[in-house]
């Protein structure tokens, strides 16, 4: 049975194998259906509206020829799963590892990524979070220009490849999160408008026209995106979704799209008998996203917290350009470690207005905030895609992995890879290929990257993509191997010392010295002390035992702890 929603069409046909077209029958709800004898798994097809060109199915499960080719029938039940013992994984207490399938390995496939799961298991991560995997123009892309949202990029291994990867993760004890984009679609290969009012009549974002979540015919559009989310969770056994840039969702309905999605996800979780997690990326600093629905919120499990990243990054690097301008002082770092947000109704210099609202630190647990030292945005949105130094990573990882938040690492961070993560595309349409660099530069006006046009590599140059692939041979170097051991040991410490994973924000207190650039974070009976300055400091902790230190020169001296520049230690006071 072929089905497609085209509420304003006068005639719809399904074209089989680029040959004969078959008339479809309209239902009262705007859906068209047709039975085609002989069509089954692996049959190629497309839909024609009102006698026009045939386009891919909006709900295509497979696009073997790319975004401009016909769809292919794909039956989920043909795949044999081996993860029957998997019972899911919850967000509290977890560590997330973000990766881009195309650059995580030399091969850039799901199967090659599965071959590195032993490394992730040794590291101790609980979830891998993949950048978007639906089809994109050309061979490689970050994934945020995706179209055909129900399908899987063929270069990665298609739908069966994704299932093999998820299956392997589950058998290795690792959950899988998937980044999904529901605020816009890519500019190339987006044929949804040919079928119906999927796109908003007036609302848009920098990345393109917004989707129609609240206008005429939007009931079915909402079902398109909610159905997509449920497909990943149900048919691909994905454990949760990271919702890209939810602040760009245009929805003025009383029942917001995010709340409706959370309701549907919770219902599916109950039916499947395993936890399902929704995490929002938002720059609004609005705790309503993670407030339970019964308390008037949207009921999502977690949200990205850029304020923690900015506070750590600025304190470690001294950068103050763009959105880092309000960050950097130790006072800011102390506030985010106790309150999650720095801008919680305070004035944002970068925005030129007040921003955010407070988090109830007595009721909202820190695990709901996904925080990182590095992620695809914060590396890839730099002109040269450069990363933090191993010295900065050691101290930053010590603070992050002992924090009350849910830590997230970005691929290669754990060994201090020198590989950049650059912005790359492979547009096949000349007008998009030629203007990508200029569009990228315009996106970051005011961010402090004034040299973008002269320093950023051409995103269309294939070398830009290949330069972003991880170099796994680096792990054989003593410097990189030592940093990997530091990350591994910190994660083990977090998992064996309950105080260091305690998500209660009201149990966190911080002492700091702006002059010395030192900070002491109190985590139950433990102290995390760090020196972010260029001179040695001694902090008073009282008698105790040192659990772990980033530098062999760190020493307990009577009632104090001696910290050389750019070092950190975790101490249990006697």
Summarize it:
The protein is built from 15 helices and 28 strands. The protein has 574 residues and is an alpha/beta fold.
Features:
574 residues; 28 strands; alpha/beta; eight-stranded parallel β-barrel; 15 helices; five-stranded antiparallel sheet
| Total DSSP helices | 15
Broad shape: elongated
Tell me the helix content. Answer: 25-40%
Care to count the β-strands? 28
Main structural class:
alpha/beta
Low-confidence stretches: none
The main sheet orders its strands as: 9-10-11-14-15-16-19-20
Largest sheet: 8 strands, parallel, barrel
Mean pLDDT: 95
Description:
The relative contact order is 0.09. This protein starts with a strand and ends with a strand. The protein is an alpha/beta fold and 574 residues long. The mean pLDDT is 95. Helix 10 packs parallel to helix 14 (478-496). Helix content is 26%, strand content 21%. It contains 15 helices and 28 strands. The chain has an eight-stranded parallel beta barrel.
